[in-house]
């Protein structure tokens, strides 16, 4: 949903869903949507505001289907109301994790069952059309757009396209599960007795390696932590073939994040320093790709 903050807040406040006047407070941290804490008649809600984002292949109908299925599966807060451009969710009074907390081995032991549940339980509750999130298709679309729209990064694009093709070949055949596909620390909430997984903009069928690679790369796991994570998730000793496939997918996760930010530099109206985010993720990708080439 485009418009300034006052227009967005006015539309949220005017929803027929509310039975009393509302108070709104912006929620920080979102770099795709506009998010608000809504208080109505002593109860708190979250309003997520955003239209389809064609340049990021984000379909709100897909986000809604995934959010509803994740809530039924017990991973995510209940969806209370939805209409074009606005999603109202139950409020979870729990802080998001930080990368430092995600890296703690005990926390990884709590997160992996959540990821398995996403991969294998959420699809049992999906209804209607949902998407396939294949990172290499996403990046082909991104790079085409970046070239067509004259991105300041376009001189680098041909090299990145060649590297992405090498990574896709190295990933090889994959198992298909239902992925969250955006495992940033901020999308994991710790309520003490349990974790919650939120924000399903990019959800879709995918390889489990993408979520695992995203979890590790977004939160800067050590190699030892990555190997332990893979053995725990797959419940078997790690083979060199799986390690190479995983390493390629981790690189793809980082490259996709960098290219996502390049696209956002052109299109997003969210107040966020996308140029710095692009530079950070490109540097992390380059380090990971150098490690991958050494395998």
From TrEMBL:
Pfam families: Choline_kinase. One of its GO terms (cellular component) is cytoplasm. One of its GO terms (molecular function) is ethanolamine kinase activity. CDD domains: ChoK-like. SUPFAM superfamilies: Protein kinase-like (PK-like). The keyword Transferase applies. InterPro entries: Kinase-like_dom_sf (IPR011009). Gene3D superfamilies: 3.90.1200.10, Phosphorylase Kinase, domain 1. It comes from the Bacteria. One of its GO terms (biological process) is phosphatidylethanolamine biosynthetic process. Keywords: Kinase, Transferase. This is Choline/ethanolamine kinase. The lineage of its organism: Bacteria, Pseudomonadati, Pseudomonadota, Alphaproteobacteria, Hyphomicrobiales.
């Amino acid at each position: 949903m485009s418009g300034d903050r006052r227009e967005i807040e006015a539309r949220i406040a005017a929803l027929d869903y509310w039975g009393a006047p509302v108070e709104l407070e912006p929620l920080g941290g979102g770099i795709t949507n506009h998010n608000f804490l809504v208080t109505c008649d002593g109860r708190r809600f979250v309003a997520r505001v955003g239209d389809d984002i064609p340049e990021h292949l984000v379909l709100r109908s897909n986000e809604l289907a995934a959010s509803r299925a994740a809530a039924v599966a017990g991973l995510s807060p209940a969806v209370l109301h939805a209409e074009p451009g606005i999603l109202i969710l139950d409020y979870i009074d729990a802080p998001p994790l930080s990368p430092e907390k995600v890296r703690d081995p005990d926390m990884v032991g709590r997160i992996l069952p959540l990821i398995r549940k996403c991969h294998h339980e959420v699809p049992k509750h999906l209804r209607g059309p949902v998407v396939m999130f294949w990172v290499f298709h996403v990046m082909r679309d991104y790079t085409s757009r970046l070239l067509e729209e004259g991105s300041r990064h376009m001189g680098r694009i041909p090299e990145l396209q060649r590297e992405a093709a090498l990574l896709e070949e190295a990933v090889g055949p994959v198992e298909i599960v239902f992925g969250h596909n955006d495992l940033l620390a901020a999308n994991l909430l710790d309520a003490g007795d349990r974790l919650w997984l939120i924000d399903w903009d990019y959800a879709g069928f995918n390889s489990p390696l993408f979520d695992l690679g995203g979890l590790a790369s977004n939160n800067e796991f050590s190699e030892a932590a990555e190997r332990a994570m893979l053995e725990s998730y797959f419940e078997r000793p790690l083979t060199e073939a799986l390690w190479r496939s995983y390493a390629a997918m981790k690189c793809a996760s980082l490259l996709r994040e960098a290219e996502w930010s390049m696209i956002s530099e052109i299109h997003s109206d969210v107040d966020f320093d996308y140029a710095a985010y692009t530079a950070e993720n490109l540097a992390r990708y380059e380090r990971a790709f150098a490690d991958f080439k050494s395998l």
